[in-house]
Amino acid sequence: MHLEDNLSMFIIQYYGSSDLDEQGEGSIACCTEYHKTDSITKEKMICIRCHPNFRAKGYPWYDWALIQFELSTGVKKDFPCRVVACVPRQTDNGFSFDLIVQSCYEPTGRESFLFTEWSFRKDFHVVSATALVALCLVLCSSDLNGDVLVVNDRDKWPSYFYEAANVEYNMHD
Question: What is the pTM (predicted TM-score) of this model?
Answer without folding.
Answer: 0.82
